[in-house]
Amino acid sequence: MAGMRRVAGVERRVELWLVALTLAFAAGAVVLGIATGGPPPHHRGGDPGLAVIMAAICLPFAGIGSAVVARRSENAIGWLFAVVGLLFAISAFGTGWVAYSVFKSALPGTAFAAWVIAWLMPMPLFAAPLVLLLLFPDGKPLTRHWRVALWGVALWASLVFMTSLERGPFSDWPQLSNPVGFGGALGRALGSINTGLGFLAVPLFLAAATCLVLRLRRSHGQERLQIKWVVYAASIAAVGFTISFVTPSPFADVTFWVGLVGLASIPFAAGAAILRYRLYEIDRLINRTLVYALLTATLAAVYVGSVLLLQLALNSFTSDSSLAVAVSTLAVAAAFRPARARIQGAVDRALLPQPL
User: How far is the first Cα of the chain from the last one, in angstroms, to the nearest whole number?
Assistant: First the structure.
């Protein structure tokens, strides 16, 4: 019993140190981001606002991770969240440090800070979410064969670090040159690894998603509800980021923010699932999200289509498009309730079990 209490005490101190460091780096990132302000016009380099955004994202990871560790210290998910929060905070602080040096006044160690965030930032953005999908909800791989995917994530992270050792300017901060990079044939070889990272990332992402889907299909009762929470949050992040990469601005900017919201909601979803807090609402949440997403897409398509058709039809009478817009708005408003009822029925038939 004394040994168990000592272990619990050590775990508690480690948890408090992780939270304290996360809060310290996050506060520093916010101060630097505010002091830097917005980037100047036609600037070359990263966005100073990213420091504040990442500082905000780290807080739910640190908070939920600390809560899970306090209740379930044996579950690796809580520790993973706490570490991810710290990595986000360090990346945010480094981004704020570099941005202030580039856009305001030079600070010591700026090039070294840019090198650190070059290889550190992909860890909480990509590697850690993959580990979460592979280990959730019990903190263990689905089977021992899935450890291969974990080793694959470790390999990807190692390759990211190796690519940061290439000599030359940073892609996000071209004003700065890598202070620890290698030149010559070794530098070119390290730079060529960058091409293979995308080919490795795709199967790793598919493997992690497949693992979570298999867990969902094999689970029952409470565990199924636990997994649904994370599937829901991770899907928002994945869809938002994916659409933002393939669509032009300003729509890409909106979907990127949707992806960030989904990413920040993952710790809330997992924390609620592990601590078994109000899990029963997830089915209703998924149902309503699907209904209103489909309803919005449908009405938007009807609105745009009717405006274009009415403009063509009324072109011979008037060149003013306001009449077409007004008529289309009234039509969409009238179609809202019947369209919602039909979509709700279709979603219910797809999601709810049907009687035999």
Answer: 55
